[in-house]
């Protein structure tokens, strides 16, 4: 039985796209007969108050996660190297205790650098997986600036890990092509696309009419109905790059063609206050509903109210290179999806086939695309079926983990000088 130790920035019980992808990978590998564990660095926080601490290891949802304890301090640069050192030492201890066959590190580069130290010390193959370039994510989150010293330093660290790993995976073609453009061998870099655990998705549950009543959404729209729907929805984090300001700006124009249209925004984040202020000043203010963050175990009730899931990401280096998870989850639930035509969405959605793509950064284009979708409800059942089939065929973790297994075995058989033969 192959033992794989996953090196992670953070994990369950925290909830994020990062932790949900991690859970899906580990649970699918378990189901395939592999022995897996995870270890998190100092940036994983325990408890509702986000303090460091908690147990040195814990089992969550049948998965074992080891923790790196302590803190790191000092000036920028020195603090990060101390963080990497503590993380590498924690990985060393798990290796001595558990004896994994492969280390599988997941971005950011700090995880990769700590794993690289441990892999060299113990002569264990290292696989490094890039989910996003974190320097670009910082720009998208408005916490960094493209071309700054920190941006360039983060990129340089990423390059160092890619060069030092025995095999590399990215989640999409955009990231892989960017690395090849930097001079890295295409044969070393495979693709493990974003996916969903299809075992978690069955037929969509019934509409929660009581919740709809509390939110003031009204009755579910149907073909030929007037005065109600469609309900346009977004469920996730409110970051600037998500383009929710454009979605809000599209509502007055949308309501000229669909007078009963509502916008349901579920979640929160850095742009929350600005978006609420924009919505309050909109001529369509009465049709825009904010719920705030909701517990994960009731999210399905909010999904049940939404006719069209909208993902209006702004065009940027981040959104062109990275594929998001949320549209795949929506398609797996049999939902209609509309998204901007950034590169990350184009890898997931075929316009007019599995969903609708509209021009990014253009509220008028958003409004027209959503209105057109609402006018063509008769096509929705077929679009839902095609989208679900696409996810089942190309984005089911039960199938996708085979990409990892073949690479793991290749590296184990060849030793740490093994090179990834194209697995994507």
TrEMBL record:
Pfam families: Glyco_trans_1_4, Glyco_trans_4_4. The keyword Signal does not apply. It comes from the Bacteria. Keywords: Transferase. GO terms for molecular function: hexosyltransferase activity. Residues 17-195 form the Glycosyltransferase subfamily 4-like N-terminal domain. The keyword Transferase applies. PANTHER family: SULFOQUINOVOSYL TRANSFERASE SQD2 (PTHR45947:SF3). This is Glycosyltransferase, exosortase A system-associated.
């Amino acid at each position: 039985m192959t033992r794989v130790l996953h090196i992670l920035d953070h994990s369950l019980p925290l909830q994020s796209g990062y932790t949900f992808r991690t859970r899906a990978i580990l649970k699918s590998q378990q189901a395939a007969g592999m022995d897996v564990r995870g270890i998190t660095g100092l940036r994983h926080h325990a408890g509702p108050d986000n303090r460091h601490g908690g147990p040195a290891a814990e089992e969550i949802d049948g998965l074992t996660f080891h923790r790196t304890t302590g803190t790191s301090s000092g000036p920028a640069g020195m603090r990060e190297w101390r963080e990497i050192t503590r993380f590498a030492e924690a990985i060393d201890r798990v290796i001595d205790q558990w004896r994994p066959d492969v280390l599988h590190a997941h971005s950011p580069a700090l995880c990769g650098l700590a794993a690289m130290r441990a892999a060299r010390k113990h002569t264990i193959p290292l696989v490094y997986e890039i989910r996003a370039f974190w320097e670009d994510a910082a720009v998208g989150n408005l916490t960094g600036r493209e071309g700054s010293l920190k941006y360039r330093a983060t990129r340089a660290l990423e390059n160092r890990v890619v060069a030092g790993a025995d095999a590399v995976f990215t989640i999409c073609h955009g990231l892989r092509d960017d690395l090849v453009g930097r001079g890295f061998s295409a044969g070393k870099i495979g693709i493990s696309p974003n996916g969903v655990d299809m075992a978690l998705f069955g037929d969509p549950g019934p509409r929660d009419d009581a919740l709809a009543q509390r939110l003031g959404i009204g009755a579910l729209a149907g073909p030929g109905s007037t005065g109600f729907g469609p309900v346009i929805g977004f469920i996730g984090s409110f970051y600037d790059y998500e383009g929710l300001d454009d979605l809000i700006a599209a509502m007055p124009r949308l309501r000229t063609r669909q007078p009963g249209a509502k916008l349901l925004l579920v979640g929160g984040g850095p742009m929350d206050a600005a978006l609420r202020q924009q919505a309050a000043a909109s001529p369509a203010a009465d049709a825009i509903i904010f719920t705030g963050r909701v517990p994960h175990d009731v999210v399905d009730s909010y999904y049940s109210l939404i006719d069209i899931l909208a993902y209006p990401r702004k065009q940027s280096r981040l959104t062109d290179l990275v594929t998001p998870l949320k549209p795949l989850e929506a398609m797996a639930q049999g939902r209609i999806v509309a998204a901007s035509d950034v590169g990350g969405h184009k890898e997931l959605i075929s316009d007019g086939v599995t969903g609708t793509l509209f021009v990014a950064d253009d509220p008028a284009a958003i409004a027209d695309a959503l209105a057109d979708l609402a006018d063509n409800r008769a096509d929705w059942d077929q679009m839902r079926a095609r989208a679900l089939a696409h996810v089942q065929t190309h984005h089911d973790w039960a199938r996708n983990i085979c990409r990892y297994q073949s690479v793991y075995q290749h590296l184990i058989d060849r030793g740490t000088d093994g090179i990834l033969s194209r697995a994507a």
